[in-house]
Automatic annotation (TrEMBL):
This is Cell division protein FtsQ. One of its GO terms (biological process) is cell division. The lineage of its organism: Bacteria, Pseudomonadati, Bacteroidota, Flavobacteriia, Flavobacteriales. Keywords: Cell cycle, Cell division. It comes from Flavobacterium branchiophilum.
Length: 240
């Protein structure tokens, strides 16, 4: 019985020693300083905001502290600070096992560059405004006209459709807003206008346009037209 009790005591002492060692390690680790900040962009490779800018935003929000324990308490605040930036769609901030402050940043995706009475800016894939930057200029169609973007999601749907289609993305160079929200587009390589009309039957209209384009290229008539009317979903009306 005495031998068994001694074994139990040794087991308890060993467990307590492990707990103490673990607690000491955690405390020591939490008091370590953040030695490095790493920024990783996820999604598209085009960089509209510099890593240095993101690091500076994080540094300002850390309030002169670099202890891991204190940084962990404000990770949510750090993410919120980055997500306020008009270039950033979503940011995840965390402390890695090796004591680095890391941020995974997804930038907004511009689908069109707008020129209106207030200046120039991008509209992103979610339909929100995105400022121009000196870091990178997106190769996207130009949109001419004044529009309340929050109240016209159907026009954003047209822009997203163009962006998602490899042919249209290369083919359409500009979109002009007409009265009653009609749209007129231009082509990269030819002089005709594309009268799209209102933002309805989007898929059908673009399928009609691609079918027309393929046929007009094959029979060498594409240079003869001045206007391509897509407003009638059952047919494409071409004007010479």
């Amino acid at each position: 019985m005495k031998i068994r009790n001694n074994k139990n005591i040794r087991l308890v002492l060993a467990v307590l020693a492990l707990i103490s060692l673990y607690s000491f390690t955690v405390i020591k680790n939490n008091k370590r300083k953040i030695e490095e900040t790493e920024i990783e962009f996820v999604g598209e490779n085009n960089v509209f905001i510099k890593k240095k800018t993101i690091k500076n935003l994080l540094k300002e929000k850390c309030e002169n502290t670099s202890e891991i324990q204190k940084i962990r308490l404000i990770l949510g605040d750090l993410e919120s600070e980055l997500n306020k930036n008009a270039i950033i769609e979503k940011a995840d901030v965390f402390v890695s096992i090796d004591g680095k402050l890391k941020a995974k940043v997804k930038q907004k995706i511009p689908v069109v560059r707008v020129f209106d009475d207030n200046g120039s800016f991008y509209i992103d894939y979610q339909g929100t405004k995105m400022p121009l930057t000196s870091t990178y200029t997106a190769r996207v169609p130009i949109f001419l006209g004044n529009l309340d973007w929050k109240k016209n999601p159907e026009i954003v749907s047209v822009l997203k459709y163009i962006y998602d289609d490899d042919f249209l993305k290369k083919n359409i160079t500009s979109i002009k807003l007409m009265p009653k929200n009609g749209l007129i587009m231009t082509n990269r390589n030819y002089n005709f206008e594309i009268e799209f009309g209102n933002a309805i039957n989007i898929e059908r209209k673009f399928k009609n346009y691609k079918a027309f384009f393929q046929k007009a290229i094959s029979d060498s008539t594409i240079k003869k037209y001045n206007k391509i009317n897509l407003k009638f979903t059952q047919q494409v009306v071409c004007t010479k």
